Amino acid sequence: MQEISLDTLGWDTHFAEHFKPFATQGLIAARVAVEHRGAYIVYAELGELQAELTGRARHDAMSRSDLPAVGDWVAAEMRPGESRVVIHAVLPRRGQFSRNVAGFTTEEQILAANIDTTFLTTSLTSELNQRRLERYLTLAWAGGANPVVVLTKADICDALESAVAKVEAVALGVPVHITSSVTGAGVEELKRYFEGHRTVALLGSSGVGKSSLVNSMLGRELQDVQELRNDGKGRHTTTKRELIVLPRGGLMIDTPGMRELQLWDDTGGLEEAFEDISAIAGECHFRDCRHEQEPGCAVLHAVANGLLPQERLDSYRKLQRELNHLHLKQDRRAASEQRRKLRAVHRSRRGTGRNVGRSTRD
User: Fold this and answer.
1) Alpha carbon of 111 to those of 68, 78, 114, 240, 253: distances in Å?
2) pLDDT tens digit string along 9-32?
C-alpha cells in the first residue's frame, strides 16, 4: 500500500478529538488492518506498517477487549530507521460487533471495531435460518452499528419469494438486499453503504458467499473462492479478520465464518431485534411481565390470536435466558477481578512496608 490519507481510512472529528493528547507526544494515528496472535498490521499516512503493543499497554489491558481489534484506531510511535510502529493506546471505539468468546469462558471478543454498518450475510439456500438471523441482529443492534441483511446466491434459489419473506418476517425495519456474485445482481446497490469513507463489517456463517461478495466489491480476486458443495454451501475460505480499503472509497472488514455465536452485553440489542414483541409488551398489565404465565400479558394474547408466531416468542425467551445467564457470569467475573485487584494492592503495600522497615534498621 502506498501513502494514504487518514480520511480515506475513515478518520473524522470524533477520532481527531480523542487523538489530541497523543499528538502532543509526537505519536501518529493508525488503523488496525490485521491482528494475529498479538502482532498487528496497521494502515497510516505512511502506508502499511508492522506493529506491536508496548509492554505497558499489554500489562494495563484488563481483558481481551482492551487490546487492539481489527478496525481500531490507535496511537503509535514510529521508531527511527524502522518500518514498524509500537502501539501505545487504543482510541475510544464507535460502533462494533462483539460476541462472547467461543467455549465456556466469559469474555468479550471484538470482531470488528469502529464500524458504521454490519452486513449480515446469509445464503438463499437450505442454510437460511431465522433463529440464527435473530441472534445476529441482536448482536448487531447491541454494538451500535446499523444492520443490513445481505442475501447471497440468488442465482441458485428456486423459491426466492418465500425465502425473502422468511427473512423480512424477523428482520423488522432492516434493509434486505438480494444478491448474486455470479450474475452481479444487487451488488451495485450495496456500494452506497461505503460512501463517505464509511466502514462496513461483513459477517455470517461459513460458506454463505462472503469471499465472493468481497471480490465483487473490489472488482478483482482478493479472497480465494472454492466450489459449491452438493448442498449449495460454499467452502470456508477466509482465515482471518482483515480491514480492506475499497478502490471506490469506503472500507470493509471481512471476517471468517462463525460456527458459534454467543451473545455478549445486550445494551438494548434484544429489544431492537424483537421490536414487535417490545411494542406489544407495552400493553401488558404488569410492567415487569416476563410473558410466561402472567395475567393480562399482551404478548401471550397476541400469540393466542395468531398475531405473533409462537416460534418468534420462543426465540426471544431463549435469547433473554442466555443474556440473564451471561449477566450472572459477568457479575461473578467482575467480583473475582475486584478481589484480585485488592489482593495485588495489599501485596504491594506489604512489600513497601517491609522495604521501609529495612531502611529504618539500616
Assistant:
1) 11, 26, 10, 10, 9
2) 999 999 999 999 999 999 999 999
